[in-house]
Amino acid sequence: MKQILIKIASATCLLAGALALSNCASGPVTQMNASSVDSKELAADSRTALNKLYKTNPAARRLGANAKGILVFPNVTKGGFIVGGMGGNGALIRNDGSIQDFYQTAGASYGLQAGVQQYGYALFLMDSQAFANINKSSGWEVGSSPSLVIVDKGKATSLTTTTVDAGTYAFFFNQRGLMGGLGLQGSKITRIRPSR
């Protein structure tokens, strides 16, 4: 019982942080987050996460070969009890393999939910419009994008470079914890500029 209360308290704190991040996407909370990010470590974690995804999902590797860029969030934390929040940092891996840009993802949700989980996700940006979306000055509200496709196991088996018909494809990976359902509704991606 004590561990359940600790998890609920942790989820509440996470929610408060995620709400602040999503409401202040270009404000002081984003800048505070950026100042605590080690860009070399985040770049290495993002590359490692993408390589692991490629090893377990051939469809991701096929898309990656043709993507304009791949935005990888290696460690995202989500938690909540009725009201929830999520947040994490990631890097943009360009089609030449370089990493120059870093981002945060944050969001809030409500509904029947309880628990805490960690996971990663990668957004494969397949066209110039999708690539431009990530640098909107007020942040990119991912879940509202009509050209976003969440790739599950069923979709991945039929996905080839000739069947790609959307601007952005999302793959989730490394899910662990006790909370059902993953999605990008209500999440926002904002560019950050780490100081180190």
Jot down its keywords.
196 residues; alpha+beta; globular; 35% helix; 6-stranded mixed beta sheet; single chain; 6 helices
Structure explained in plain terms:
The longest helix has 22 residues, at 2-23. By secondary structure, the chain is an alpha+beta fold. The chain is built from six helices and six strands, in the order H-H-H-H-E-E-H-E-E-H-E-E. Strands 1, 2, 3, 4, 5 and 6 form a six-stranded mixed beta sheet that branches. Mean pLDDT is 74; it is low at 18-28 and 154-163. Helices cover 35% and strands 38% of the residues. The chain has helices at 2-23, 28-35, 39-56, 58-66, 128-133, 153-158; strands spanning 69-94, 99-125, 140-141, 148-150, 168-177, 187-192. Helix 3 (39-56) packs across helix 4. The termini are far apart.
Quick structural overview:
This protein has helices at residues 2-23, 28-35, 39-56, 58-66, 128-133, 153-158; strands at residues 69-94, 99-125, 140-141, 148-150, 168-177, 187-192. With 196 residues, the protein is an alpha+beta fold. The protein has one domain.
